Amino acid sequence: MTISRPDAEQKDIGSRLRVSQQVAIEVIGMNKWFDNFHVLRDIDLTVYRGERIVICGPSGSGKSTLIRCMNRLEEHQQGSIIVDGTELTSNLKDISKVRSEIGMVFQSFNLFPHLTVMENLTLCPIWVRRMPQHEAEEVAMHFLEKVRIPEQANKYPGQLSGGQQQRVAIARSLCMKPRIMLFDEPTSALDPEMIKEVLDTMIELAEEGMTMLCVTHEMGFARQVANRIIFMDEGQIIEQNEPNEFFHNPRSDRTRQFLGQILGR
Amino acid sequence: MSDQGFVRTEMIPPRPPPVSQSSLTGWLKENLFYSVPSSVATLLTLVLFAWGVVSVLHWLVVPTWSAQSINECRSIVAELGRGISQSGACWGVIRDRGIQLMFGFYPAAGYWRPVLAFVLLLPALAPVLFAEKLPKRLRWFSLVYPFLMPWLLWGGSIWIPVGIMSGLVAGYLAYRITLGLNSLLCLAISSAVTLAWWVLVVPVLDELLTSLAPIALDPVPSRMFGGFMLSLTIGVVAIASSLPIGILLALGRKSDLILIKSLCVGFIEFIRGVPLITLLFVASTLLNIFLPPGTEFDIIMRVIIMATLFASAYMAEVIRGGLAALPRGQYEAASALGLSYWQAQRLVIMPQALKISIPGIVSVFISMFKDTTLVSIIGLLDPLGLTTSIRANQEWAGIVWELYGFIAILFFIVTYSMSRYSLYLERKLHREH
């Protein structure tokens, strides 16, 4: 019996499930510590263009930290992360180049409360992309229609419901025309009634072929949208597979236990 | 079991609130006359209040405006036959010395200059204070004003402020040209250009242009400055410069660069740990020891610098409070969207942090403005400094309330306007969240 090395298998699964040849993000032997706490351990992950990856796992397993490393909201201490051919180092120019290509959606929306919805959407295209204002507003309106709240353009974020705020946040990221979108538990702060409207928006985005990495506990969404599911625990990738296999035929005990908790079986 | 269930078939329509919530009589009855003791207390308070107002008016309204001395005032009041209390204000002192309380020993022919300088302050401030209501072109005037004001107050050739201004423009141009290089180098080059311009070009420029077009105002030395005008000059400059310096100090204190951080922390803690009086004494006496002999460093300028440093240390801490109140997510969202550090500060962080800190910022402004009266201790003749000499005068010896009351009102007008403006600003910037 041949013993397959776990990291070799881990790398292999990506190329088996990939939807294209182009690599979007490559994480090689990445380690991260918060002071003495080893949050991410030997992470190897290749994300191909057009992939919809769902990352799940218990809280404290490092899933958010992993995607936050990909646009360097967190700094990693070992290994390398290469986004679209640009390696993330402390070089500020590289970081801002990567950040302008990666959109990020947060659990707590993080809209700018002092600006209207329209201003939230046009701020960065104008200041980072140097887009003329009227053009930025056209783009913003296009994406507001896409997330189905064009009528809220002149309101302030505080006047919107949670679901609407999160859709504005998605539109705000899209206005920068990102090639990759990161979602950090986008529905965890929402009322059950509003989760659906946000998920619908994300599903539409996935159907358009956006490369997406999504940390979420919405297993229905994972099943419907993801082409690959990654299960993490204690800062390590425990298992990754395509959704059907992952849900029906989990290989590790830890995964089985987690699925049992979350799906109530 | 189904009969235990409940389904509402009709919604309850809204009803008007009870009378006590909606009418004045209802409110009075609810709050002021709800029982016998409360009615008695209300009436007693009204009587006390009325008595207070009448006695103050009684003191205020006296025909002593034309009196030439305190004795004349006293005889005018006595002639009124006011009986036992015999009290009444002596307004003659304000007629006699009011102008001096405003301008100090500024030459009378030049009174229009400080007046114009402070009247022009309003249009210069307006685009900053009421940004969205005014045309953007007015901002140019706000930029020119800091050079116009000292020229109006101190006089001299107009070409010196123009030269200083052009030095800044030259520095800015140098900055734009070298922008491609390393940002630190670029900053160094542009500051060097500005300094070189001031030292080398300005004297030549001044001489040349004065021979062509000698536009100048009579120079007024700093020792002739005084009165409320002096308080306003020190207060306005210190207030206006303490905000930007305070912002930089607050950001520096949060910086990751240890050198910058420790410099800022050291500065803030040192300045906050020392009384303003001490700093003013340093400005008035000690500083001369360190400067090369014979250098003339204007006393008002020295005081303004000390007052600015003092206010900006407090300002930095107030703004740091505002920065700390912002959720981390705001920084993260700004950087995740690709904004640079300074862009994020300017567009996302500062607008929110400053808004949170408005009450604190305005408190610093107000206390700074009132602290300008401390300059009387180092011998500058601000209104309080002038009262000493006025009260030492034979004619007005013994006058207290009228003088200090007049000064109090002057200060109150300015500080109260600042306080009202801050309330307006808070309302304007209020967003529902």
Features:
heterodimer, A: 265 residues, alpha/beta, Rossmann fold, 6-stranded mixed beta sheet, 4-stranded antiparallel beta sheet, 10 helices, 10 strands, 24% strand, disordered N terminus, B: 433 residues, mainly alpha, MetI-like fold, two-stranded antiparallel ribbon, 17 helices, 1% strand, flat
Commentary on this structure:
Chain A has helices at 6-17, 63-70, 92-101, 117-127, 133-146, 162-174, 192-207, 219-225, 243-248, 253-263; strands at residues 23-34, 37-48, 52-56, 78-83, 86-87, 102-105, 180-184, 211-215, 228-233, 236-241. Chain A has 265 residues and is of the alpha/beta class. In chain A, helix 4 (117-127) packs across helix 5 and helix 6 runs parallel beside helix 7. The two termini of chain A are 32 Å apart. The model of chain A is unreliable at 1-5 (pLDDT under 50). Among the domains of chain B are: 16-61, no CATH class; 224-433, Orthogonal Bundle (MetI-like fold), CATH 1.10.3720.10. Chain B is 71% helix and 1% strand. In chain B, helix 11 packs across helix 13. In chain B, 28% of the residues are buried. Chain A binds chain B through residues 71, 73, 92, 96, 99-100, 102-104, 106, 108-114, 123-124, 127-128, 156-159, 172-173, 176, and chain B through 327, 329-330, 332-340, 343, 347-348, 351-352, 355, 429, 431-433.
